[in-house]
Structure formats: C-alpha cells, structure tokens
Amino acid sequence: MSEPAELLAFLLAKLSHQGRNAVKAILARGQVSVNDRVVTAYNHPLKPGYAVTISMEKPDQAPPLVGLSILYEDDDLIIVSKEAGLLSIASTQENEVTAYRQLNEHVRRTDPAGRIFVVHRLDRDTSGVMMFAKREDVQQALQNNWQEAVLERTYVALVEGNVKKPEGTISSWLKESKTLKMFSSPYPNDGQHAVTHYKTLRASPQFSLLQVELETGRKNQIRVHMQDLGHPVVGDKKYGSRSKALTRLGLHARVLAFAHPVSGETMRFETEIPKSFLHAFKDEARP
C-alpha cells in the first residue's frame, strides 16, 4: 500500500466485489493479518509498506448458542430470540448458562475487550425477542428513554378458560410481597402503575390465545394481570394456573419495535407464535 489508511476502508477498496457486511465479517473472524499479526479492529492504522494478508478460509466456527438465536447485530445492539427455560441473566446464587453469558462470549470472539449490557429481561420461562446493548452509553440511552424508544412490545399469552370479553384493558398498581410475588394493590397510587391491553386471537372452552400489548413494563405484569382477569397464564403456578397443557409458561414476547438509539431508525422484530400454544387447541378438538 502507498498511502496511510484505516484497515476497514482499505479492505472495502480491495474487496470491492464483496458487500460491506461480508468484509466486516471476514475481519471479525480473524481472517486478516497485518505484518503477520491477526487484526480485527476496523480502525487499525495502516502505513505504506505494511503487508496485509487475507485468508479466505473461514476459521473454526464458534460453538452454537444454546437456547437463543441472534436476529440482528450491529455495533450498538444485539437482538435475540430466547427460548423458554433459559435465564436472561444469572442471579448471584446461580452459575449456569444464560443469554447474557453466551452473548458476552460471542462479542469477545471478535473484540476481546467487548461486552454486552442488559437493557430489559424476560422471565426464565418466557420466550421471545430480547434486546442487549453492546455499549454502556447505548444501554443508558435506551433505559432512560424506554417509554419513548419502544414503539411496540407485543406478547402472545395462552391462558386458562374462555375469555368472554374479546378485548380489553387492565390497569392496576403493582407491588411486590415479602415473598417476591407481585400483586395488584386495592389502593390507587399504591405501587407502580401498570397498564395491559389484550385482544383474543383464538378461544375455546378450556383456553384462550391472547395478543397482549404492554403500555408499561413492570415485573410479572402480564402474569399478574391475567390472574386479575380470572384467566391465569397456562403453566403459571405462581399466579394461579392449574393447567398442565404446556411443559412451560404460556407466554411469548412476539414483537419488539423501537427507535434505534444511535441512528434513530425504526426497527421491528417479529417471531412466530410457539407451536405448542396452538397445539393446545388441536389437542382439545380430539374426541
């Protein structure tokens, strides 16, 4: 090379037949060496006389992620789909595989100093879309502006019984008991205000499948409000369920839409309704 440059710009010029993301992936996988040293930093400085070597053989693949898949990733965010049964982040007493730990290891494969930051959580037995930040300032920007940043947060819930009113809104003040169980206070302004909107997607005598929109994001909000409605989430023993139709909690974070905290772009991620939720209705139809 004849002029100073940054590594990514140099690679984009030399590999012009490849897309930008493909070039960044080659760099991130450790396939680029500068003066015989593997380099992954986009802004690594190059000077005249430096030798840049590109290996077109992909290195050994990273170990597969357990219980989650990455839906989207950029320099600021990782959006994942989490399966039921996987902890979002470990408590102080637990030392097991979590979404947080796996994603930390994922980012450190390409950036040894990298880490991720929790933006919001899903209960262990709730599946669906989750967002993590890759920088602390991005985490803070999202958490400080959560109500405005999040444009849509939609769940599906399989609940017990036939919900007679096809759609409605549940509003209450949530508090936490000494046993760490959330409940709706009978007194106004006593606790955190929580508002949940629901619409029935499918119903039978035994079950209802609800689309649930969160206006607020309180701990266990949907689970408490479904119990208040008289139709607890299937599999939710903590909040009144007696059904064993599922081996998991009947709650899935289906849609997350938000304004990107850096670019301002509107982003929307939608996942499928878990098949086990729909099978509950098929099983019921059998003689």
Overview in brief:
The protein has 287 residues and is an alpha+beta fold. It has seven helices and 16 strands. The chain has helices spanning 7-14, 20-28, 99-108, 136-144, 146-149, 221-229, 275-285; strands at 5-6, 32-34, 37-38, 45-46, 52-54, 68-73, 77-82, 117-118, 127-133, 150-160, 167-176, 182-185, 192-203, 207-214, 251-259, 266-270.
Topology:
Layout: E1 5-6, H1 7-14, H2 20-28, E2 32-34, E3 37-38, E4 45-46, E5 52-54, E6 68-73, E7 77-82, H3 99-108, E8 117-118, E9 127-133, H4 136-144, H5 146-149, E10 150-160, E11 167-176, E12 182-185, E13 192-203, E14 207-214, H6 221-229, E15 251-259, E16 266-270, H7 275-285
Parallel strand pairs: 9-15
Antiparallel strand pairs: 1-4, 2-3, 2-5, 6-7, 7-9, 8-9, 10-14, 10-15, 11-12, 11-13, 13-14, 15-16
What is the helix/strand order?
Answer: EHHEEEEEEHEEHHEEEEEHEEH
CATH class of the largest domain: Alpha Beta
What is the rounded distance between the termini? 76 Å
| Uncertain runs | none
The coarse silhouette is elongated
Radius of gyration: 23 Å
Whole-number tally of structural domains: 3
CATH superfamily label of the largest domain: Pseudouridine synthase
CATH fold name of the largest domain: Pseudouridine synthase
Assembly form of the protein = single chain
Please bin the fraction of helical residues.
10-25%
Average of per-residue pLDDT values: 90
By DSSP, the count of extended strands is: 16
How much of the sequence is in beta strands? 25-35%
Structural class call reads alpha+beta
Number of continuous helical runs:
7
Note the main sheet: 11 strands, mixed
